[in-house]
Amino acid sequence: MRFSTRVLLALIGAAVVTHGVLFALMYRTARDSLFREMRVQVANIASTGALSIDAAAHESIRGPEGAQTPAYEQLVRRARAIRDANRRSDIRVKYVYTARPNPAHPSGFEFVIDAEESAEERSLPGDPFPELTEPLRLDETRADERFSTDQWGTWLSASAPIRDASGNPVAVLGVDVSADVVRATLADLWWRGAGALGIAFAVAGGLAWLIYRWVRSPILEIERAVDRVGQGDYPIETHLANSEDFERVALALNTAARALRERETLKENLARIVGDQVAGRLALRSGNTGRSEAAGGDKAPVALLFAGFRDASERLTREAPDQAAKLIEELCAAVIEGVVEYGGEVVSFQRDGLLAVFEDEESRAAAGNAAVRAMRAAFKVRRQTEKLFWRWMAEDRLSERPWLGVSVDVPTTEGVEAGGVAGRVISIDGLTRELSIGVLASADIARAVASEMELRPAGRPGDTAVAVYGA
User: Fold this and answer.
1) How many Cα atoms are found within 13 Å in the side-chain-facing hemisphere of 457?
2) Quick one: which of 441, 259, 411, 422 has its CA closest to 353?
3) pLDDT value at residue 365
């Protein structure tokens, strides 16, 4: 996963966690605040309603027969008025009732007044009051700290004392609000909060995306620059203006790329000079001008072989970066194996390939011995590398077969004086891909090996600058 993608996911994750925790805390705080507010409202309804109840008339109602008295009917109408006045959108009272102490019942209280119209749900004077989780208190106004449940449902209840003319509590007025109403209010609060949370997530996601784009741009630029360096294209001007930190990275990358380019240039020049010097000394030592006649002329005791594997190394670096060094090493080993098998000596490695020298180690009477061995080594190198390429493709390390050409030439004193024996060999190698011929040789080599193998002319008609023959 890319670093910029991890940054995006980290930002989104941080937004989700922080907003989620904040929402949970705010919702819990709001829920508790709303519940306390509703408790206060229910308690106020109970205390205000209790003030409107005539304690003397209330005490006159005794037993079920008390429900037939005018005082009972008057108190019931009063209780219903309290109930109906508090059935609003913000709160809805379900039951209003009164109770007084009665030690004969387990709860210690009995019903007196019930505002309910339904005979099935209405309690009569003297009916036992149910036992509650939070029992009634005769001496104070109170509201439940949590929902309570009885045979009629789940409620948020409150009660307030009904006092006689002397101020003594003789009964309580109870008010019940259905838990469904409270839960609906809390659910509405939750959905409003969830909607706000969703908007916050969307805004946070948009900001995270902008930050991701801001971070991703310089990272991609660095990645492209590093890829070019890995492929041998050394950039020296990478500018990242997003921040001072990225600009420092760009300056460091430019410095490293410049140093690598200078080192590569020095290495190439050194390899070319070494190759030219070695080949030149061999040419001077043999006294060979490199111009053998087709029949009976001078021998060619020295030959140069160049295997150009730049395309292969670039493809390996691009398609198998983790294994590129090992695979390029295996490729070089295959080339060296073919060179050494036919008595060649590796002169130098260059960025474009490998340069080897074949010298006549036997009697000079053997015409073209070095050139013949160089050509046979060239064929061996081609076979070995082709096998490698096909194997790597079968192993999915390469998507297609790279190009590797092999060229063979002779060192000449004219070439040394012109400053480019190795350059001449590399120029011939450049034609291998252009002409799509795996092994090319100069005209001098073709004449030197004519007695043992036949090479056909491969250059463009009329091209006399570099006359090449292919096999």
Assistant:
1) 8
2) 422
3) 39
Encoded amino acid at 406, one letter: V
Using the predicted structure, report yes or no on whether residue 138 has a pLDDT greater than 80: yes
Average pLDDT over residues 208-236: 72
Helix, strand or coil, per DSSP, at residue 174: strand
Contacts of 48 (CB under 8 A, 6+ apart): 82
CATH number of 258-470: 3.30.70.1230
If one compares 146 and 385, the residue with the highest pLDDT of the two is: 385
- In this prediction, residue 202 has a pLDDT band, given cuts at 50, 70 and 90, of confident
Which H or E run includes 385?
Answer: helix 369-394
pLDDT above 90: residue 200: no
DSSP 214-257: HHHHHHHHHHHHHHHHHTT---------S-HHHHHHHHHHHHHH
Report the top-level CATH class of 19-185. Answer: alpha beta
Whether 155 shows a pLDDT value over 50: the answer reads yes
- Domain range summary for the chain, segments of one domain joined by +: 19-185, 258-470
Look at residue 160 and give its three-state secondary structure: strand
